Amino acid sequence: MSIQEEVLEEVLEQTVDQKNNEIVLYNDDVNTFDHVIDTLIYSCEHTPIQAEQCAFLVHFKGKCIVKTGIYEELVPRCSKLQEAGLSAEII
User: Is residue 62 in some structural domain?
Assistant: First the structure.
């Protein structure tokens, strides 16, 4: 086995071991579209178009996955959403 194959194998193992979680944003009757969009841009680093699409999905479907990643990276983002008055959780 060559060194290149060994390194590639190690990288693949690390990638498989990390479980991705998701932040789910839920619909409510309190927050405006503009507030949701602005908060997604700030908290999740969405582009304005991504944030708008998520806001519409939340409105019409009741929920939307707004960010995927490892748990430790999602916690501060989810906290920012919640502090802004949005209903969100990590699953």
Answer: yes
Number of domains in the chain: 1
Greater pLDDT, 30 or 8: 30
Q: Counting Cβ atoms within 10 Å, is residue 24 exposed (0-12), middle (13-18) or buried (19+)?
A: middle
The parent domain of residue 25 ranges over: 19-90
The string of pLDDT tens digits covering residues 24-81 is 999 999 999 999 999 999 999 999 999 999 999 999 999 999 999 999 999 999 999 9
With CA atoms as reference, report the closest residue to 35 among 81, 91, 88: 81
CATH of the domain at 65: 3.30.1390.10
